[in-house]
Structure formats: C-alpha cells, structure tokens
Amino acid sequence: MMTSPRIHIAAAILAIIVVTFAATLAAGMIGASIERTLTVFFISLIGVAGIGIYAGNSGILSFGHLAFMGIGAYAASILTLPAPLKAATLPKLPGWLAATQLDLLSATLIAMAVTALFALFVGWAIGRLEGSAAVIATLGLLIIVHGVIIGWRDVTRGAQSFFGVPRETGVWTAAIGCIVALVAARLYRDSVSGLRLRAGREDPISAGAVGIRIRRERLIAWVLSAAIMAMAGALLAHFLGAFSVKKFYFSDTFMLLAMLIVGGMTTVTGAVTGAVVITLVTELLRRLEGGFSVFGMDVPPILGTAQIGIGIIILFAMFRKANGLAGLKEWEERVFRPAAERSETAKPAELQEKSTLQADHLTMRFGGLTAVNDVSMHVETGEIVGLIGPNGSGKTTYLNMLSGLLAPSAGTIRRGAVELTGLTPPEIAEHGIARTFQNIRLFSDLTVDQNVLVAALSTKGGRDARARTHAALDRLGLLEKAAEDAGTLSYGDQRRVEIARALACQPSILFLDEPAAGMNREETEDLMARLRGLTEDLGIGILLVDHDLHLINLLCTRIAVLNEGNLIAQGTPEEIRKDPAVIEAYLGLGKEHQSARSTKREPQT
Amino acid sequence: MKHVVLSTFIAASLAMPAAADTLRIGTATAQTGALAYADAPTMLGMKMAVDDINAAGGIGGKTKIELVEKDVRSDPAQTSIAAQELADDGVSVIVLPGDSDPALAAIGVVGAAEIPAISTVASSPTLPEIGGDYMFSNFPGDNVQAAVSAKWAYDQGYRTAWIVYSPDTQYTTMPLYFADVFTRLGGKMLGQSTNTLGQQDFSAIATTIAAQDPQPDVVMTSAYEPDFPSLLKALRAAGVTSQIIGSDGIDSPTTFSLGEVGEGVVFTTAGFPTPGSALEKFNKEFEARYGKAPDTIYSAVGYDLIKVIEAAVLKAGSTDPKAIRNAMASLENVQGATGTITYAGTNGMPIRQVSLVRVKNGAREFVAQPTPDPALIPEPRME
C-alpha cells in the first residue's frame, strides 16, 4: 500500500521510465563512448538509489553498502564465468560451482538473493546500534568484507583482479536495472515501511510512541537496499569484465556517497540529481586531466583533477545546500500538490469500552536520584485526570514510565487484567495508550497528513488507517493544513498535530504533556473544547500534565499533585485548591514557617 | 563574423590532429598509485623514444607518433574503462600498466576491439597466455628471471634456500618458479613464508628464518617497495646473514639508498649499462635530456616499447591495429635501449636480456648477463 497520493507515484514512475529510455536512445544516436559513460552512470545511479533506500529513509549514513555491491559482483561473476576459464583461474572452486555457468539475469537474481540473505544476518546485528555507533558499524562491515574477499582466494582470487567475466552489461541492460532500482527506491519511500522509517528518522522517540517498531523497518530497508546494491555490483562486473576488490572499497564508497549527499539523501530526485552532477563534473575533469590546449596554450596534465573537483563540490554542497541540491522533497511533491485524500467512509466514532489504567507504587531511580517515589494513580476511560506539580517534580518521568519509555525501577502498571510493566512504547501504543510530548516531537519534514497517517498505520494493525487519519485531523480542525509540512506550522498548530497523531492510534487512554504550552487564550479555550469532546464523544480517558492551573481546574474531574517525586495530594479540584501541602509546594511557606523548615529548599513554581 | 573566427579557432586548437600519417598510441598506465614506481619512469623512456622518432621525421620518415595518455591509478577497473575509452578513440596500439592484474582487466576490451596491447613492464608469463593474440608483454618473464637467478645461486655454491612470496599478485609469486628451478638443479628448499601486499611488519617471517639452523644460504623474494625494504631490514635485524636475491621490482632508487642493510643484495633486471652497450648510450642521452641519469631500468624498457611498436609499424607498412599486431608477433632482434628483443616464436612474452645486478656501495655492480637455459625455464602457470 502506498501512503502518498497516487499522482505522485504515477508521475515519478513515468518520469523515471521516460527519462531513462530517452537518455539511452539519445546516447545510442551519439556514439559508443557516450553509451558506455551512460552505462557507468546508470550503474552508479543504481548504487546511489540503493544506499539511499537505507541511508535516506533511516537517516543513518552507511559506509558499508559497497560491501554488498562487492558481494553481488563476485557472486554473479562466479556464476557467469565460462567454465574453462574458471578451471584455469579458480582451480580450487568447489565442483558444483566450477561446473555452473549461468546467464546474466539468473546470476544477478541469485547474487541479489545471496546478498539479501547476508544483509539480513548483518542487519540483525547492526540494527541494534543507534546514531554514530551504527555508522561506524557500517564502516566495519566494509572493512571486514574487504578483508574476507582478499583472504578467500580460492573463490575470489584474493587481491588479484577477477577477470574474464562476460561483458554482457550493455546500456539497455543497465537502463532496465536503473529503472528497477529507482522505482524500487521511490515505491519504498512512500510505502508503509518507508513512511514509518522516515518518521523514525525525524524522531525515534515519538515514532515508538505511535507504535512504530523502528528496528524492524530499518532491517527491511537494509535488506532491500543490499539487494539493489548487489544488482549494481553484478551489472558493474559484467560491464567491466574485470575488477578487483579495490573497486568496492573507500574510493567508490565516497564517490557514491558524494552523489547521494550532493543530490540529497532523502529523495530519489536527489539521488538522480547528485549522480548527474558528479558524473558530469567527473567526466569533464577526467577529459581535462590529460592536459589540453586552448587558444594555442598548452595546459599540462594534472593527475587527480577529478577527485579534487568532487571534493570541492562536496564542500560547496555542505556549506550551501546541507540537504542536497534537491532538498527534502521529490520533484513531483513540489509540482503536484493535491489535497489530502479523503477517506472513503468516515467511520462513526466508537465509544471506548470502560477500563482502568492502574499504576501501583511506581518508583524511578536514576543512580542515586529518586525522580519518582512510590506513586500510585489510576485513570479511567471517559475522565480527565490532571497531574500537576512544580518543575522537576517528576511528572514527565511518570508519564514516561506509563508510556513505556522508561522501565520503572519498582511498581506495576496494569490495564484491567493486562500487565503493562516493562513493555516497549510500540507495545504500549498497541494496548490503546497514546501520548504527546512536552517538547513537541513531530516528524517535522513529513506533512501533517503523513504525521497522523503513520500513527494510524502503525497501530491496530493499520486497519482503516485512512479513515482514522481523517477523523483525527477533522477532530483537531487540521484538515485544511493536512498537506503542509508539520515543521512549518505555528506552535499551537504543532501541538494540535501531536494530539491528532496520538488520537489516530485510537487510544482509550491519552497522555497529554503540557498540550497548551505556548498557546494563547483563544487557542487554549478551543483546545479545552476539543479535549472535552474526546472524553464525551469517544470515551477516552485523559491524563493531562500542564502548568496552566486554569485549564486543569476547568477540565479535570480529579487532580494528582507531585512534588519532588512524591504524590502529595489527590482529589477533586476543590480539595486540591485547599490542600496545605499543595499550597506549600506551589507557593512556598509563609515567613512564620520558614525558620522551622529552613533545611528545605524553597520549591519553585 | 568575429564569433565564427573565434569558435573555428577554438575548435581547431582543441581538435586532435587526426591525419593519416600519424600513429596514435594510447597509454592506459599507472601514473599514480602502487604501480607508479614502474609506470612513471617507463613513461619518461616512452616519451623520449617518441620525441627521437618524431624529430627524425617519424616512423620511416613519415609517420609521426602521438601519445594519448590516461592514468589508471593502478586500478584494474579503471584500466578496463581507460582501455575502452582509448579503443573508442581509435588508437592503433594500447599500452597497459606494468602488472599483469590491471593489464588482464583490459583483455576483454583489446580482444574485442582487435587492438594490440603491450604491458609496460608486467613480467608474468601468464599475461599473454591468458590475454590472447592481442596481448603482449615487454619484459623478461618471471619464469625466465627465476631460472637465471636460481642457476646463478646454484653456481655460486649455494645449496639451501628459503622463499618469501605473496599470493596477492602474479608477480609476487615469482619465488615459486625460483623454488622449482633451484630444486631441479639439486638445491634444497628449507621452507617458505607468505606475506600480504603492503604488509608493515615482517619480524615474524624474519624470526622464523633466523631460527633455522643452519640458516638458508639464500633468501629469495620478488617483493618490491614498500614491502622489500621492510622485509630486508627485518631479516638483517633478526640476524639473517643469507644472500638475498630479488627481482626487477627492486630496481629502483630506494634499493640503492638503504645503506648498509642493502649491501650485497643481488637481483635480476632487464639490462646493465656495460661499457659500449646500447644501454650505456641510452643512459647518457637520457641524462642529457632530463638532467639526471635514469633511476631504474624501466625508463630504458619504456624506450624499448616504442622501438618495438616502431618496428612493427615499419614491418606492417600501416597503422592498422590488426596489421601491427601481426607484424609485432613476428618481430625478431629489434634493437632497443637494453639490447635486442624478439617476439617471433613466442606467445607474446619477449625474448630479451636478463642481467644480474648487485648492490655495492649504494650503486649497481654488474654480476652476470647469462643466456637462460631453455630447459631450465619452468612452464608459465597461474597462481
């Protein structure tokens, strides 16, 4: 299932096919030399698209993808190498391999499958790492595979060149491979998995909270991109006819990454743009490398001109266009801007079944600091419970425990008879508990519609995701802004998108962490009305954290007060307003009491 | 009007002179990277030969030579691409890098385009064998060099040997040929060690050899820089006193600047400037032109390469690639800078001079220039 408007996908695929074919035909008319340049370009583009599927969507730069390209090249070449040559150059090959001699297509497909399998294994391990550790791990992958290829002489000829591969990759073969790779990359980007992965790239924490299992999505992208890299490797090997392990190491890694970075990692448009720019510049400079004469003046050969040129382009791109020449959007997303697709049938709101979220004796210790100390609380469906307390009193920590972001040091969380303690955020989301964040955590580069849709797709098995998205946007009054990028909205609107996103998970319990922060009075009033609607129409239970006591008093049926990690009061707004402990926590002691309690730090409000 | 004149001028100055009386030789050689130590000096010799021939009016007094240069950065894939570009460009002969690995990367291209190709200094005898009709070599084969050095060692009274080789390239497996010949002569191999190309630390190998009791009379290797100096220093530091025998890969200034540790090393190469020899004359001319004597034999071998092409074009009477290839395969006794060169009767591996040189007082000392015994030369084989 595609998550973007059909016109985007259709326009993108059509453009990929038309442009690739047109370029191929044009090159055929110009001459063999241009055809070969175009073949190399197409193969590079397959590689760039392959790296982009993983790096662009996950946001984790990979230095290791050339390893997959190498595995693909060797695997396919061993399968197509003529048997007599194999006997001469690889005498120690196992018998069944030595006798095999396949055509390019079968060999490529097998190489892709083998590489994908290997990637599945590697990705399972590397996928556990985050951030720069993951990037360094990909570098390790490149070096290890390089070492294994050199060491495995009987199969790979070690560091020597692997030659005699049938030169079967023509410009049309490469063109078809290129179309397959670009279409795969484009479809993946807007597939359910691709959208989830991009959401995870923007914000892994809130992605988890809306039910996205980010490691699984990363693994899917990793394996798919490895298979595409293997195709690039197989085609390259059958274009060159001879190669060595050096071809799949640092210099080509940086060449492909340069294309990806200069063009823009996150889009297929960017991959194509970068590949075009870098190829043109390289070809131009390489031709000048051997020296040339203009106006009778001889310019001497300067070796390495091409590399220097690419270096300068990367520097320029980093300084002036950090997101790449193509930016963060596909060309068709800029050209065609249809209104968000309407849901087929807006389903009538369903009233949630009655149930209670019960947290008992929750304690959270960070080293020696006890952030939350033995706090019990419950939220029932259909009610709004306020959680207040001075800054640093443990409110957000408490929410983080309830939503699975932190595992409590002690205590239990139950939903009816179901034990929720220690579950991960996606599992908590699956149990009908959704949340927003104190510091807005939207998927800034995705549209409002996509922000909400990805949550609907990632919970309740993704059933009726479109309808749920529409209903959530409608309820928060965001339909008009559905096509805009979430990051460009006003502060108040961003808060509402976060609530809509949480709502799209179809929760029975909703945690809102300072939803009115930064809103003006009218926006707050509007928000209050909408929140009341959630409990009255949908029967959702809300746990509301806010500093706006006016809002809390008007909305909540019950209020709990935390101070320095302890629950100091619980009750109706009336009761809370009169509670001396609450008054002390919020306003401090009067002068007459200060001398008696002088050791206690004055609480802030 | 001004524009037309200007653009015509630019077009004219950028266009290649493609007249019929020009022989265009494409060079896809390693001017940078690991093989530059051989291909860069070879290029100097080639350019000198081209200038000499052109100054005399061209080949046969009419065909001027033009070099179309590409750097392949010592990379096989880049060699394949550059060779293809040269073939597309319509050159008559292609010069390939000085190692059989990158040179082999171009076999598909030169075979399909039917353009003769010569490697600058690749000495693996399997190169023309696997490379087919259009692949030629320009250097004494590994098996020939090994036969010469093994015979010399045996004749010196050395009876035990140890080899150090690397399976990473064809060239660095030359010691295996040496072991063959040495054993056949009646010598005894005490053992062998392998290294990887670019290995930093040879102390484990050195310790193993030093621990032999008695130590081998000879340690033979075809490692070249940066590996050879490291290996040599490690051997001497570990107390190995054996005669070290190397190959043409160490015919470079580095070997002669190693000081005490390099003294006494003997290696095979493609010629020696004995008094009155062609090579002595070449070295003088080279010095007159470039301001210093050639650092290595490779410059003279580069000169030879162009002289071979010249002879082939003269014999073919045309610049047609196919005609040149057929003429080249039947050349006999072409006079080059290092001596005479013969391709007739071979599969593309030339018959040419092999000299033995010793490092003495930081300079080259002539050891011998024997004619290799055909019965001793091992069959070429792929490692």
Describe this structure in words.
The complex is a heterodimer of chains A (605) and B (383). Chain A contains 26 helices and 14 strands. Chain A is of the alpha/beta class and 605 residues long. Among the domains of chain A are: 6-244, no CATH class; 356-432 and 507-594, P-loop containing nucleotide triphosphate hydrolases (Rossmann fold, 3-Layer(aba) Sandwich), CATH 3.40.50.300. Chain A has a 6-stranded mixed β-sheet, with helices on both faces. A 4-stranded antiparallel β-sheet of chain A has the order 6-5-8-9, with helices on one face. A two-stranded antiparallel ribbon of chain A has the order 1-2. The longest helix of chain A is centred in the first third of the chain and has 27 residues, at 32-58. Chain A is elongated and about 90 Å long. The model of chain A is unreliable at 598-605 (pLDDT under 50). By secondary structure, chain B is of the alpha/beta class. Chain B has 2 domains: 2-140 and 276-341, Rossmann fold; 142-269 and 355-376, 3-Layer(aba) Sandwich (Rossmann fold), CATH 3.40.50.2300. Helices cover 41% and strands 17% of the residues of chain B. Chain B has 14 helices and 14 strands. In chain B, the strands form 3 sheets. Chain B has a 7-stranded mixed β-sheet, with helices on one face. A 5-stranded parallel β-sheet of chain B has the order 2-1-3-4-5, with helices on both faces. A two-stranded antiparallel ribbon of chain B has the order 11-12. The longest helix of chain B has 20 residues, at 36-55. The N and C termini of chain B lie far apart (65 Å). Residues 8-19 of chain B have low confidence and may be disordered. The chains are: A alpha/beta (605), B alpha/beta (383). Chain A binds chain B through residues 31-33, 36, 40, 88-89, 150, 153, 158-161, 163-165, 167, 236, 240-244, 246-247, 289-296, 301, 303-304, and chain B through 9-10, 13-14, 31-32, 68-71, 75-77, 79-81, 84-85, 88-89, 101-102, 104-109, 112, 130, 167-170, 196-197, 382.
